[in-house]
Amino acid sequence: MHRPLPRRRAHDGPRVTHDTDVLVIGAGPAGAVAAWEAKRAAPELDVVLLERDARVGTPVRCAEGVGNAGLREFADPDGAPWAARKITRVVFVAPDDTEVKVAERDVGWILDRSQFDAFLAERAVALGAELLVSTEAAGMMCEPDGRWRVRLRGAGGEAICRARVVIGTDGVEAMVGRWAGLETRVPARDMESCAQYVVEGIDFDPDAIYLQFGAGIAPGGYAWLFPKSPGVANVGLGLVALKADARNARQYLDAWIARRYPRGAKRTCTVGGVIAHTTIRQTYTDGVLVAGDAAHMINPLSGGGIVNAMKAGRLAGRVATAAIRAGDTSASRLSAYHAEWMAQLGDDHLKYYRLKRALEDLDDQFFNSLARAANTIPAGKRTLGRIFAHALVRHPQLIPVAARFFI
Amino acid sequence: MLDASDHHGYRSRMRPAPAFPEIAVVDLQVCDRCGLCLPLCPPEAIHLELTDLVVDQSTCTGCRKCIAPCPVGALTMVPA
Q1: How many other CB atoms are there within 10 angstroms of residue B34's CB atom?
Q2: A131 pairs with which residues across the strands?
Q3: Cβ contact, residue pair B35, A249, below 8 Å
Q4: Where in chain A are the domains?
Q5: Chain B: closest CA distance from residue A376 (Å)
């Protein structure tokens, strides 16, 4: 099942190794769910899932937090080996270190993404999808009959895969969308530069996630602590470089950890980009769909993208197979995917994005005073909605924010 | 025929003439291959090839948009 590309003989040019119905490029949550859904909806169709790295799920470029309800649409986390920690509390930390414990129930989970992604891919394989690891897509072109001819590259050489529909789930790089002529570039102000360490030997509530804001801590973003087990957590931050001083994200993070968790032992460091924008204008073209980070399907407020990616992958798998069955993989047929995504989540992201832009105008002093005001609400009633309502009364300058959010 | 650089379309119109005497270079010792810089590059001069990040020197316009966002500071400007 997990096999590398067949080794190429000396005189072979790139040759056709595959004619497939659906080719999914990138075996993250979006791609694995797309492949799974495609096989589930249309078992008679061939589905190939490509992964550039040698193992699905590594390296992990993720804080690994996911909402409970969204996750349960796809998998049961209770007792699962890929669920590292159940989270029942959220602690917001103001720039001046004032902590606000928010009363929400069933907040979410911290995943072990290396195991979770492998679990999702295995599930697609179990339904008959073919997984090719250590294999990347190097380029693609459309053939006269409407199929896409994708050049594959692996340690063993090159090959060609012809597909009726290509699903681009290649993450922030978004090369598939670019090859297909979609606009996947990101303005610098909407790119969050992130760095994260696994930190051991620190003190925190292992049932809570911590989020700290502050212009000097993570300008344009926030710093986080997501528990993996008691004493061990993903500690990271995301910032907008345009708002930062000369330091890069890892330098901001080193400074934050030195101040907040001076006794912590920093383990593996990972970095990456989170696109805090809205869904790209067009997520489809003739024979191509893009989903997940590759289509900028990220909650621009939270930076969360796992459930979004899985929901988009599910839609993409469904729409692609229905189109193939109908013998029409044209852009107009595949546009149903975009419309359905926007109705499910894409339009909400537009509202979140407006809220994000409005919140950018508020300074540290505002968040410090909001935190103190929120702490006057009794602990059991201190929900996000109540904090926001409280903020509106005490801080009338928030009313335009609320108006922009709800319009 | 299959390379990204062969698919022009909207990109050829977006590609300005080099206006700066500098171009970006990547330090592969520092780069973590996260891919963050790829969608930031207006002329799409940055590519990930198997395991290495590559900045196409003939395409880079020296706009510096990739420099500050790199989480580890792996990209710097050098004279063209």
Answers
A1: 25
A2: A49
A3: no
A4: 16-58+114-185+279-347, 65-111+188-275, 358-406
A5: 38
